[in-house]
Design goal:
GO terms for molecular function: cellulase activity; polysaccharide binding. This is CBM2 domain-containing protein. Belongs to the glycosyl hydrolase 12 (cellulase H) family. Keywords: Carbohydrate metabolism, Glycosidase, Hydrolase, Polysaccharide degradation. The protein contains 1 helix and 46 strands. It is an all-beta fold. It folds into 2 domains: about 1-335, no CATH class; about 350-570, Jelly Rolls. Strands 31, 32, 35, 36, 37, 39, 40, 41, 42, 43 and 45 form an 11-stranded mixed sheet that branches. Strands 30-33-34-46-38-44 form a 6-stranded antiparallel sheet. The chain has a 5-stranded antiparallel sheet with strand order 6-7-4-10-11, with no helix packed on it. β22 (about 250-255) and β23 (about 255-260) form a beta hairpin. The longest helix has 9 residues, at about 525-530. It starts with a strand and ends with a strand. About 55% of the residues are buried.
């Protein structure tokens, strides 16, 4: 078993990161457990693909209901967002199923397979087992001890094509132990390939499921002069297509994609990086992008990241670690190189005006929408979402909230999101899926409200006739309008169903029976179909907007939408 830590984004006051746990054995791994420590100036504010408990600076992560078993050769990626005050430091003292795993600073390593570490120099301590830990980048020294796995394992770095690239992994030195038998498995990411003019690019998938995946391209300026107006090009196989992209703007021609900067990341200073993330749909098996070009020059040695073994390198040098398992000789492992896990990010955009908006990911509108609290609310917008920065005021809990800070696809009072295909007639929708990650503060009165707006005609402004609300979570003595009319299980989640009117439009509300922090690729149409059994909504009506945010009555600073996506496909 290995575990890989990868930061995916950073800004002045926080960061996001993933832990990828890989089953390198021959039998299924059930009820896994991940433990790590954060420094005192950092704390986890949100976590997805797992459940987290905290004791001081120590965190314990256990599976979600859907990923409790990891089959041999497969992985589970747990992601989290953390707040920080001061300088960033990666987690330490990593344990998987109670056993130390290399790949963090000052941690202990099991067995003697070299891993890859995050930045700097990483030294494993001593322990017992057969496989060394895994991180990204840096130099890693495998642990020493007694193991039962001998032999030699190797991993090949990630895929890359074209050009001449360089990327030699860090070196890990196994300890001394005793044991016999078996074959150990080294894990490494491919070398970071070099394109023209001191530019490197590294590819890393961060999450995968049966019909899609999320991945990052990190572009680093290794030269001595700023790089402006960068351009990234790559091909995806015909069974994969990008559905959403952030920190850049994307153009598509068949299976070829061209990514150009957003206004805030068009210049990369020497030694700095820009991370472009995207979500893709797939049918059939996954394959990474190919034919990578940065500023028109081929780049080689990109790593596959987050996998039990490296991919296949077809260009440049991209060699993952070669390791000898925890045998009598301890073994030697050479990890793949990484970019030091610096990530990129901005301090965010602060919106203070009552109805101020901005766009993110070239796909969604983020709005302050303090319609009942003029001048008393502000939000901080990040490249993937937003959080409430100030909330000065309060509203009676038996009345309307202070506002609806939110992110949306579609239309809201004449403002449309970039490239939206809404409004669209319900009968013309083939699929409508959405993903969201929320952060819930412990103070304040609020609900985490997801809104689906429907109307008999394709309007882009004014009030829609039907509102479908999903209460992902709520805190304080508040409730939806109307009264309870039943219960429903939708796409695997349980809800209490309310029906009523707010005086302007009809409302059907689905109140989660337990808080939902993260929900990936849920079926929006199931909520619309259920609403059609309660309201006179037909397939001739139109879907005009999909929105996610918060309705605060008081407090609620720190409430945030960490990430959001909505994808509506017509027939």
């Amino acid at each position: 078993m290995t575990a890989t830590y990868t930061p995916t984004a950073q800004w002045n006051s926080g960061f996001t990161a993933n832990y990828t746990i890989t089953n390198t054995g021959t039998t299924p791994l059930t009820n896994w457990q991940l433990q790590f420590d954060l420094p005192t100036n950092e704390s986890v504010t949100n976590l997805w693909n797992g459940q987290v408990s905290q004791s001081g600076t120590h965190y314990t992560v256990t599976p979600a209901s859907y990923n409790g078993t990891i089959e041999p050769g497969n992985s589970v990626t747990v992601g989290f967002q953390a707040a920080q005050d001061g300088a960033y430091s990666p987690p330490t003292h990593l344990l998987v199923n109670g056993q130390p795993v290399g790949g963090d600073t000052g941690g202990t390593g099991t067995g003697s397979t070299g891993g890859t570490g995050t930045g700097g120099t990483t030294t494993g301590g001593s322990g017992t087992g057969s496989t060394g830990g895994t991180g990204t980048g840096g130099t890693t020294t495998g642990g020493s001890g007694t193991g039962s796995t001998g032999g030699t394992g190797s991993s090949t770095g990630g895929t890359g094509t074209g050009g001449t690239g360089t990327g030699t992994g860090g070196t890990g030195t196994g300890g001394t132990g005793t044991g016999t038998g078996g074959t150990g498995t080294g894990t490494g990411t491919g070398g970071t390939g070099t394109g023209g003019s001191g530019i490197t690019a590294t590819y890393a998938p961060t999450s995968q499921w049966n019909n899609g995946f999320v991945a990052n391209y990190t572009i680093t300026n290794t030269g001595t002069a700023p790089v402006t107006d960068w351009q990234l090009q790559f091909d995806l196989p015909s069974n994969e297509s990008i559905t959403n992209l952030w920190n850049g703007q994307v153009a598509q021609s068949g299976t070829h994609y061209t990514v150009t900067p957003q206004s805030y990341d068009a210049t990369i200073a020497p030694g700095s990086s820009v991370t472009v993330g995207f979500q893709a749909a797939q049918t059939g098996s996954y394959a990474p992008p190919t034919n990578l070009l940065v500023n028109g020059q081929p780049v080689t040695g990109t790593g596959t990241g987050g996998t039990g073994t490296g991919g296949t390198g077809t260009g440049g040098t991209g060699t993952g670690g070669t390791g000898t398992g925890g045998t009598g000789t301890g073994g030697t492992g050479t990890g793949g190189t990484g970019t030091g896990g610096t990530g990129t990010g901005t301090g965010g955009t602060l919106i203070t005006s009552q109805y101020g908006t901005t766009t993110i990911q070239n796909a969604y509108v983020v709005q302050n929408n303090a319609w009942n609290n003029p001048g008393g609310q502000s939000i901080n917008v990040t490249p993937t979402g937003f959080s409430i920065a100030t909330e000065n005021g309060s509203a009676p809990t038996n009345g309307a909230p202070l506002g609806y800070p939110s992110i949306y696809d579609g239309w809201h009072y004449g403002t449309g999101s970039p490239g939206t295909n809404l409004p669209i007639q319900l009968g013309q929708i083939q699929t409508a899926t959405s993903s969201i990650n929320y952060t819930y503060p412990s103070t304040g009165v609020y609900n985490a409200s997801y809104d689906i707006w429907l109307n008999p005609t394709p309007i882009t402004t004014g009030v829609n006739q039907q509102e479908v609300m999903i209460w992902f979570n709520h805190q304080g003595p508040i409730q939806p309008v109307g009264s309870v009319v039943g219960n429903a299980t939708i796409d695997g989640q349980n809800f209490q169903v309310w029906k009523g009117s707010n005086g302007q439009n009809n409302v059907v509300s689905y109140v989660a029976t337990t808080p939902i922090t993260s929900w990936n690729n849920f079926d929006v149409m199931e909520f619309i179909d259920n609403t059609q059994t309660l309201e006179p909504v037909t397939d001739s009506w139109y879907l005009t907007s999909i929105q996610a945010g918060f309705e605060p009555w008081s407090g609620s600073v720190g409430a945030g939408v960490d990430s959001f996506s909505a994808l509506v496909n017509g027939v």
